[in-house]
Specification:
The chain contains 13 helices and twelve strands. By secondary structure, it is α/β, with parallel strands linked by helices. The protein folds into two domains: 10-228 and 267-321, Dihydropteroate synthase-like (TIM Barrel); 235-266, no CATH class. The protein is globular, with a radius of gyration of 19 Å.
Length: 324
């Protein structure tokens, strides 16, 4: 394994630790709930969902987090302000772990910011995200919020290379007035988490992984990816899944779904081997697969850096939980 010359920040968010040198802190895993077409959502606009099913998947993520030592975050994805408030209230009542305020609608995320401030949950909240598409309303809301943690999305539509991502984070890449890292700090974000913006395989997925080295080397901040989006958008895999949806000549029923699942979940080890700090692993119901897989990878990375660079793993960590 390897070390970064620059000192690496370790942040505490809602009781968990994130960042540091490879092998130092366990990888933080973040599962998404209430995403588009999620089986437990009944009315995405009104925030109506199967509470029993939602509680089950939230508790399962927490259970596997306790089992492996990998801290967890709930990625709460909401469509409307009404849904956002209901879903945050429910999730934070069920589990005491940190959560992402997430939506494709700026108004919804702003409502989430205001709500967590009103009910005293800001210390557990992570905004997703500060990016070049943020509206003036979002920027003002973040600035006026006591929130300290946010994902900073290094998506540069003009240049998806490592250099393009660093340029965006450092200078704004000619798209905004200043770099996203400096902007986030100006808005009061003292715990920026960089997401290098996963693109499809063949369109920049490799650069998203490689950029993690550059970001941690230059800024020393925690870095992660929603890498499962790369196989999910992989044209060949989607075609294979469709063509092998039913029993074929080889006698494998549902082979396409199995292969898709393997590629989707197994992709989450890639950022860990590349020295990154958190993984947005996708649907929260995949927790029982994602946590042991990433936990195993964490053990290997940590073992290597202890042997080669005398880096000690910090508790909780799979090295202590799964080493017996």
């Amino acid at each position: 394994m390897f070390l970064f010359d620059r000192e690496q920040d370790i942040y505490e968010i809602g009781g968990l630790k994130i960042g540091g040198q490879p092998g130092e802190c366990a990888t933080v895993l973040c599962g998404t709930i209430f995403y588009a077409k999620h089986y437990l959502v009944e009315d995405e606009d009104k925030g109506i969902f199967d509470k029993k099913a939602a509680e089950e998947v939230l508790n399962k993520q927490s259970e596997f987090s306790d089992l492996t030592g990998n801290p967890c975050i709930m990625q709460i994805f909401s469509e409307t302000p009404e849904a956002m408030e209901k879903e945050i209230a429910f999730c934070t009542d069920v589990c005491d772990v940190p959560f992402l305020i997430d939506s494709t609608v700026a108004e919804t995320k702003v409502a989430g910011l205001k709500y967590v401030d009103e009910v005293g949950l800001t210390g557990r909240a992570v905004y997703n995200s500060i990016n070049i598409s943020c509206t003036d309303e979002e920027i003002e809301a973040i600035k006026n919020s006591p929130i300290e943690a946010s994902i900073v999305l290094a998506f540069n539509p003009k240049d998806s290379s490592v250099a393009g991502k660093i340029d965006l984070l450092e200078t704004g890449a000619g798209t905004i007035d200043k770099g996203l890292v400096a902007l986030s700090r100006d808005l009061g974000i003292t715990k920026p988490l960089c997401d290098n913006a996963t693109l499809p395989i063949g369109a920049g997925a490799g650069s998203a992984v490689a950029a993690g080295f550059a970001v941690k080397s230059k800024f020393g901040i925690p870095v992660g990816l929603g890498i499962h989006n790369a196989p999910s958008a992989w044209t060949w895999l989607k075609k294979f899944r469709k063509e092998h949806a039913t029993k074929g000549p080889g006698g494998w029923e549902g082979l396409g779904a199995d292969v898709f699942k393997i590629c989707d979940v197994a992709s989450n080890v890639i950022p860990v081997v590349a020295g990154q700090d958190f993984v947005l692993y996708g649907p929260i119901e995949n927790a029982s697969l994602a946590f042991p897989l990433v936990g195993m990878t964490d053990m290997i990375v940590s073992e290597a850096n202890k042997a080669e660079h005398d880096i000690d793993a910090l508790e909780p960590h799979p090295l202590m939980k799964l080493g017996a």
